[in-house]
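Q: Hi! Curious about what MBL fold metallo-hydrolase looks like structurally. Here's the sequence.
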Amino acid sequence: MRLTFWGAAKQVTGSMTLLTLDDGYQILIDCGIDMANMAESDPLYPTSALPFDASLVNVVLLSHAHLDHSGKLPNLYKEGFEGQILCTSATAALTQILLDDSARINQRKLKAYSKRKSKGLSLDHFNFIPENLYTTSEVNDTMKEVVPIQFKRKFNIKPGLWVTFLPAGHLLGAAHILIEVEENGTTKSFLFSGDIGRKNYPLLQDPIEMPQVDYVICETTYGNREHSKIADSTAELQDVIKRACVDIPGRLIIPAFSIGRTQAVLFELHKLFESGKLPRIKVFADSPLAMQSNRIYEDFLYLLNKEAKDFKEDYDSLFNFENIEYAQKQNESKAISNYTEPYIIISSSGMLEGGRIQHHIQANMENPYATVLMVGFSAEGTLGARLRDNEGYLRIGNEDLKVNCKIEQTDSFSGHGDVNDLQGFIKHQDKEKVTQIFLNHGEEESMTAFKERIENLGYKNVVIPQKGHEFIV
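A: Let's find out. The predicted structure is below.
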């Protein structure tokens, strides 16, 4: 068998790993967009979105819905894939709305591209290949091939090949993927972490203990860092709101991914409101995608934790409360900037790469009464990372804006496990029985630190693959 790393190699986004069996059967685990480099890199051919022949892939296993794991699924079909996508039911529901949203953004990109091209203007600033931008129709065709699989159910894909989706936390429906292969009288097992969640995270059930396997493919997003305690997240949010909106008549802007992070923040705000700890200020949720995601979270209430289930029973809703207002249309979004009273706004995307948040950042960057609270990871090269690393100015589009607003950051809402959670994931494996550990989905510094950490625990054969590296397993 061969294991090839086509994405998230020495970087956080773009997860894409290919397992090829001895009989040639190919299993693709995740098919994500590289959020830090939206231009296609190392494609199979000039207009390809992929670095391998999609027509040779037999099945896709999807760990969860985030675009850095799912965002190139329509490209896979465009380039010849004819198989099915296996994932959990909740992942299927969230992937549908995420890919639909991505397709709508693609339409706007193509419209702008075509307009400039027709006028003979420079196209240098477009960082995409037009042929790779999929449509809503292509998303719908993709989603017709999705097969939902229950958590913890051992599913037989073909003779000698089984997959089990194990709860990972991190996001509604997110799974660790266990693959078991029987070939030539020998059984080998592979555990793909996807993204590792955290214990006691808002709304989500805790990750479960993993079985013993032969090979582990482990993410390392926070492989060299510890998070703030989740128990402190509510108090931390309350403190930021006080400083940003009560002590001064200011605005609190929270960039957050529409799926996952926004629900965690809204749930905490709702808890503060019901306990009388949220000031009587307006909360704007500016993301139609987040509204759709809210509904899916409540549809899959049985997958949430006990606190969320009890809260829903007591207050009838996880995310809707008296102070909140949802902006659905674009003009409603833009009108928020005209609101003169202190307010909180939650808008996507979390890394500031597109979405309505860019308008709000642009409108408030030079406002000393505005505070931007970064609540999640921003990959290097993204607008979110440049804002986080505040160098005094921020370039948005063709405009350089002076950063007069306050920039704050918290990791207490991160859906990613920290170094202790990652270590706990690895420690489920007997160091004398696990054959090899591969580290991916992390910046090189984080990977290197985590490699050293688990080697000090006695784990051997820990590897950090390069993109395109193939391993015989």
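A: A fun detail: The first strand starts at residue 2 and ends at 7.
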